[in-house]
Amino acid sequence: MLFASKVAKIFFAGVFFCMVFASFQVSAQNRSKTWPTQPIRIVVTFTPGGAPDILARVLAESWQQSLGVPVLVENRPGYGGNIGADLVAKSEPDGYTLLIGTVGIHAINGALYEKMPFDPIKGFTPISFLASTPNVLVVSKQLGVKNLHELIELAKAKPNQLTFGSSGIGTSLHMSGELFKEMTGVQIRHIPYKGRAQSLPDLISGRISMLFDNLSSSLPLIKAGEIQALGVTTLKRSQAAPQIPTLAEQGLVGFEATSWFSLMAPANLTPALQKKLNTLTRQTLNKPEIRSKLLASGLESAPSSPSELSKLIQIEANKWSRVIYTSGAKLEQ
């Protein structure tokens, strides 16, 4: 009788667990069907004005009109993007807190930082690739160089006297500089900033020698003649600025460092919500007027499936971990 009683207790406990689990599944499915019923928050891990911020605000404006709920953009800069990403990774997977993912967050920081507050890959549900922009090597007019060869000659003549800025340790802009050092053999000091809003004025004034920046951020200053563009970091010239040569065509064969951006949600988002968000993102970015608007800012939009985004993240993570290892990049420069 005692054995039968224990079996019965185990049986009913199992039934209860299955009922609870099923109720959670039904509840999640119901939330997916009614989404959205409250404001949506898109977290940007850098200061306003850069490419991630531009993309977030384009999505927010379009979604607010089509969904009928407020869509808010929240800037949470710092720690190479980890502060904002950590906030999203630890949020409820209900579709109301989203992240503008970056190559730094998902493909670089995991190899660069000894300890991460979240898993850059497993901590998120991929939604869609959003857009990419070439990084561009720009120099201060006060440096007095007009092309890549003159810059390399000057850097070799003055080891550790020239400086390059970036929008933060671990960003693709920082890694562009490390790759540049590795491929040219020059010794230049890295000066990390919290964002482009701080680094660009220092470049214009000559406080730093050069800067790897998203083309979308520097293009207005390049066109205004306030800074000098020496080359883009993609293998092909950018549609947004075809007059700027690539670094590869100027002798740095194979040099490639693209800043790309994605839409991510916390891990364990339901497949139904993942599909809804992916469809919504595709519809927004495929509008001709939005594609044109982004291209004018140096951003080439290319929405994808979640699986395509996952594959890209893995490829990029493998690439940048090799660069970090061979370059000896450190958190404190």
Task: Give the CATH H-level superfamily of the largest domain.
Answer: Bordetella uptake gene, domain 1
Number of strands: 10
CATH class of the largest domain: Alpha Beta
Order of helical and strand elements: HEHEHEHEHEHEHEHEEHHEH
Q: How many structural domains does the protein architecture include?
A: 2
Estimated share of beta-strand residues: 15-25%
Verbal overview:
The protein has 333 residues and is α/β, with parallel strands linked by helices. Helix 4 (103-112) crosses helix 11 (306-327) and helix 6 crosses helix 11 (306-327). Helices cover 47% and strands 19% of the residues. Strands 1, 2, 3, 4, 5, 6, 7, 8, 9 and 10 form a ten-stranded mixed sheet that branches. Helix 6 (172-184) links the parallel strand 5 and strand 6 (189-192). The chain folds into two domains: 38-132 and 259-327, D-Maltodextrin-Binding Protein, domain 2; 134-250, D-Maltodextrin-Binding Protein, domain 2 (3-Layer(aba) Sandwich), CATH 3.40.190.10. The protein is built from eleven helices and ten strands. The longest helix is centred in the first third of the chain and has 33 residues, at 2-34. The chain has helices spanning 2-34, 51-67, 82-89, 103-112, 148-157, 172-184, 196-205, 215-223, 271-285, 288-296, 306-327; strands at 40-44, 71-75, 97-102, 124-140, 163-166, 189-192, 210-214, 227-232, 258-266, 300-301.
